[in-house]
Amino acid sequence: MSSYPRLMPAEPRMFTAQVVRTERISPSFQRVTIASAELAEFDWRGLDHWFRLFFPLAPDAGFRLPAVEGRLWWKSYLAIPDEQRPHCSNYTVAGYRRLGDHAELDIDVVLHWHDDRLTGVAAWSVAARPGGPVAILDQGVLFDPPRDTTGYLLVADESGLPAIRGILRDLPPDAVGTAIIEVPASGDVTGVQAPDGVTVHWVPRDETGELVGARALRALEEVATPAASSYAFVVGESSLATQGRRTLHQAGLPKERITFSGFWKA
Ligand SMILES: Cc1cc2nc3c(=O)[nH]c(=O)nc-3n(C[C@H](O)[C@H](O)[C@H](O)COP(=O)(O)OP(=O)(O)OC[C@H]3O[C@@H](n4cnc5c(N)ncnc54)[C@H](O)[C@@H]3O)c2cc1C
After folding, report:
1. Does ligand 1 have an atom closer than 6 angstroms to the CB of 109?
2. Could you tell me if the CB of 159 is within 6 A of ligand 1?
3. β-strands 176-183, 197-204 pairing
4. Domains annotated on the chain, with CATH
5. Whose CA is nearest to atom 42 of ligand 1?
6. I need a surface site. Which of 13, 79, 137, 138 has the fewest CB within 10 A?
7. How many CB atoms lie within 10 A of CB 215?
8. What would the pLDDT profile of 197-237 be if each residue is shown by its tens digit?
9. How far apart are CA 57 and CA 39, in angstroms?
């Protein structure tokens, strides 16, 4: 992730907001919508625009945010006492709407259960109530195709679905390529807005017990060898990102034409 700082804002801005609503949009996704007047100034760039999400871990913990100086904020975050330090993890803008003097932003959170329990952001997303405080730190986009790109190859598991959906929506109408999207269940397959020339392959795991990313990698091996002038974007579980990159590089795609990022680690 940090190896692609080019499109990251030099002075990332922190925006505070409140939860407006939360709803289950498919078996494995909870959509949390947040809003505020400050968010109307968010410079949404579409594509896979992502941010650091902060929220208080307990209702009585208060909401202390790190100071942000240029791109530096982590030290200040760690300096917040444990019991007051907000949760922080990375999410993608799933939707953004300016509505007069305020704006709404959607966050599509993967629900992953461990020992039948939701933890972390997944637990927060389901329990969130209107008025709950949140903040987001703008991080810009990762998607960075070279100007001479002739075709696109997009690969992700469910954690990268919001990113791939945004990229497909914002690609030029004459773009050509392939998108491979692995999701936990067939019920997570939804319509996506994409250029006519981009084929979208959904690969649901559907309780096959396969490791996350295995199906997406198989689908990637089956697609035609990418032209050397293609650009690939491979994100999701860390092995999917690294093995996907290796597969593409062995198939002849130069490393500098592949953006890959481990979004989480199994
Ligand atoms: C640029 C970027 C954009 C991202 N956008 C999104 C997004 O829009 N929506 C989204 O849901 N995620 C997204 N992610 C992934 C998200 O940041 C991670 O899943 C993160 O670990 C969730 O934080 P957590 O605190 O809930 O879990 P953690 O505390 O990090 O992990 C707790 C446990 O959950 C497991 N875990 C974490 N994520 C998953 C998962 N997806 N599936 C199964 N097990 C998991 C971990 O292995 C660990 O065992 C993005 C990541 C990056 C880097």
Report:
1. yes
2. yes
3. parallel
4. 5-138 (2.40.30.10), 151-264 (3.40.50.80)
5. 112
6. 79
7. 22
8. 999 999 999 988 899 999 999 999 998 788 999 999 999 99
9. 22
